[in-house]
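Table 4 source record.
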Amino acid sequence: MSEVIMKKANICINRLNTATENVNNELCKLEENLEKSCEIANHTFYELLKIVENRKQDLLSTMKKYQVEKKGSLLEQLATIKREKLAVDQLCQGLDNEVEVRNIFKKICLINEKMNNMPVFGEPRENGFITYEYEHNRAFDDLQTALGTFGKVRTSTTFSPLCTAQVEDISVHLEGQTLVTAVDFKGNPQSVGGDPLVVEIFHENGELVKATVVDNSNGTYTVKYRTEMPGVYKLHITIFGRPIKDSPFRFEALQDINPVVSFGTTGCEDNQFLQPCAVAISPAGQIFVLDTGNNRIKVLGPDLEFIHHIVGVGLEECGGTGIAVTHVNSLLVINWKTKYITELTFDGEFISQSTHSDFVEPMDIAVNSQGEILILDNNLNCVFILDESRNLLQKIELTGFNNTESHAIKFVAVGPKDEILVGDSSVLVFGSSGEFLKEIYPEGRNGGHFGGLVSDKEGNLLVCRSEKNKHYIQIFNFVSGHLLFCINSPKTKLKRPAGVAILKMS
């Protein structure tokens, strides 16, 4: 028993020695940080004094400059007066012996002329006024205020071993975020930031992953990172050079991207769909799904909670195939059977309805930032561009591009700069004026077709794609046309994806 006690006592003593060493190291760091902080403070105030000294020298130099200019003008005037006095003295010389009246009269005239010019010499041409002012504006008060807030001494009571982090598995290519919460020795959350938090992330093969730390200024820190290959990663987080609780953390980057939330099954109930054809999102995040087989529009909240149905005009004969949100916060629905464009409020109230004599099989609709309406006619293989009053502005022929002469259903969308995007077996990109720009091909070009496409403001093009028995979502870089990554999760079991929309790209 005594051996057991001695063994445990030695372990305890070793841990206490380690604790003593850690505390002594922290005392050394405290002294070092004080010395370093004082050095930085001295340097900054030295630089501040240099600025003040330079300003003082500028003002003194300016005053000296004005003094030299004024003095030069006055000395020049004195020299002129001296010359005039000498000229008068010369006129008076020899008058006692002068007997010629004509000469005397001439000298009198010259003296009279000089007397008439006397006011010019009688007053100084320049004044001796030079003064220094410092209360002419709020600069003095502002300087005092600025000096009162110049520099800041900050300390922290954060206790690294009790700080926590929320780490979860993520999907490859998507941004992962970890929230770090700082606490003090008693476990109380900190209310301010500024702690020196250091993050390192390593893949299982040893490759370092770039990470950024965002100080939320409330005692929490957001760590952001993006993994480029699947596998196991280790996340090391330290504060003051010491690891936080449970660091290093282990997480996995998964190849599959599973949905955060899903909604709907096949059927006619409130939580069911029958041939959903398209989707649109309002600025407030409401989601409008064109449930064509049920002749209705299903309205969902931002979290996919059911709100209500829109039924009636514009959805007749199960012909609604395209839906879009206008810049005046209304809905546009295109019906390929009736060939009508129907405008509705978000609550489903009828606003207007129109068509065009050239429509044959209008399948999809989109609205650009100018309020112009794009209608894709699948039979005519073209895109109609209408103004807000439904007047035809332009017609873009799609014939001759790749496989666009096929009768596969095509879709139209708007790019980040109002480009016109048409999806079929590839994505055709036209300028806002209708000029052809480029074609974006799917990965592998293994046939198949797109079922929906949309572009975000960050230059990402997100498309649904079907190839034989494969159904997935691809995300392209809109500018380069390169495939960024593919969403094909076994849990989603995508079957004939018909539409797509971006709520938030991360």
